[in-house]
Design brief:
Blueprint (H helix, E strand, L loop, with lengths): L5 H9 L6 E5 L3 H15 L10 E5 L5 H9 L9 E10 L13 H8 L6 E10 L4 H9 L1 E4 L5 H14 L3 E2 L1 H11 L3 H14 L5 E2 L1 H7 L10 H7 L3 H13 L4 H23 L4 H8 L3 H13 L2 H19 L6 H16 L3
Parallel strand pairs: 1-4, 1-5, 2-3, 3-4, 6-7
Length: about 350
């Protein structure tokens, strides 16, 4: 059967058309998880005893696929349906760390060919390669929904709908302003809108001033902008970015912590890739958002492991120098120390 979009799934749910088996996949994991929760809610009727009829099985535990289907084949208890969520589903391009393999084909097909009419089974996939045999099998025999990354227009529409659901109002310039601060991170955007909607009471209008007071600018201080220029040995741009961040009021120790954090993550990524880890595993271990993965992993590939280790030692030395006022105390001394470090790292 064809893969559905988010909008097609939403239309089906509005019509209360609930499929017996779903597989939800894609990079927009926040909306994927919200969809799993929504399907679960729509599967039950008023008065159903949900506590005894809602189960979740992680495929990180051996044998849980069989246990999930055994639960799905049980009759509901004082409910119209059972809902079984199967999480941590991975069928990757390399096969590394897969949680569903060809050994599971017989178990899957036995259920797919005769699904319980009183159960809804939801596969929540972290990685679902469309070329591998098991990835094709899941997409073919379940109602598959692709949660692709939202583009700017889709994110704006999603934000408007979220503001409306939160019972608040917002004008277009203010909405665009929020998006410019947060970017395409639906999880954080949803949290910030909920916070703003509550703060906007009783008038309900989310204003530009309210956004300024409550929403930090995550794009001005990017986790990767300074690191990117350091790894790229762009000394001039590195110092320009650093000075902009310092002039905006950031503390030198906070910036140093940010640089240290990213260099350590680059070294971890380098070591993981040297051991054969694929992109999804590296992204999972380092908790990388999809939109940050390409830039970060490109930096990791071109960075030298020994240079990263040297940089981490120099960062630690600079941290000590700032905290002990070595080479000058106070804000001016701390600023000089971190400027010297950035100049050195960008030319090392």
């Amino acid at each position: 059967m064809p893969v559905l979009s988010r909008d097609e799934l939403r239309d089906q749910l509005r019509r209360r058309e609930i499929a017996p088996i779903y597989v939800l996949f894609g990079t927009e994991t926040n909306l994927r998880n919200l969809a799993a929760a929504t399907i679960t809610d729509f599967s039950f009727s008023d008065g159903d005893l949900r506590d005894f009829n809602e189960s979740e099985f992680s495929l990180n535990t051996e044998g849980n696929l069989q246990r999930a289907f055994a639960a799905a084949n049980q009759l509901p208890m004082m409910s119209s349906k059972r809902v079984i969520r199967i999480t941590d589903v991975r069928v990757s391009a390399s096969g590394h760390r897969d949680t569903i393999g060809e050994d599971d084909e017989a178990v899957l097909m036995a259920y797919f060919q005769n699904p319980s009419p009183s159960s809804v089974v939801i596969f929540v996939a972290d990685d679902l390669n469309g070329v591998r045999k098991m990835g094709k099998l899941l997409r073919t025999h379940a109602t598959a929904v692709d949660f692709a990354q939202l583009d700017d227009a889709e994110m704006a529409k999603w934000a408007r709908d979220t503001v409306k659901k939160a019972g608040a109002d917002i004008d277009e310039p203010t909405l665009r302003y929020i998006l410019s601060l947060i970017g395409n991170d639906s999880s954080r955007l949803g949290n910030e809108i909920e916070k703003l909607a509550t703060a906007a009471l009783p008038g309900k209008m989310i204003s530009h001033e309210l956004v300024d007071s409550l929403v930090p600018n995550s794009r001005e201080l990017s986790n990767f902008a300074l690191t990117d220029t350091l790894v790229g040995r762009d000394r001039k741009r590195s110092l320009l970015i650093l000075r902009k961040i310092l002039d905006d009021g950031a503390e030198p120790l906070m910036i140093l912590g940010l640089i240290s954090y990213n260099f350590r993550r680059l070294l971890m990524a380098k070591e993981l890739m040297s051991r054969g880890a694929d992109r999804p595993e590296v992204a999972r271990v380092l908790n990388l958002r999809y939109r940050d993965q390409e830039e970060f992993l490109a930096n990791a590939r071109r960075a030298d492991a020994d240079a990263l280790k040297t940089a981490i030692r120099r960062i630690a030395e600079t941290d000590l120098a700032i905290k002990t006022s070595l080479g000058g105390g106070g804000p001016a001394g701390a600023r000089l120390q971190i400027e010297m470090l950035v100049a050195e790292l960008a030319t090392a």
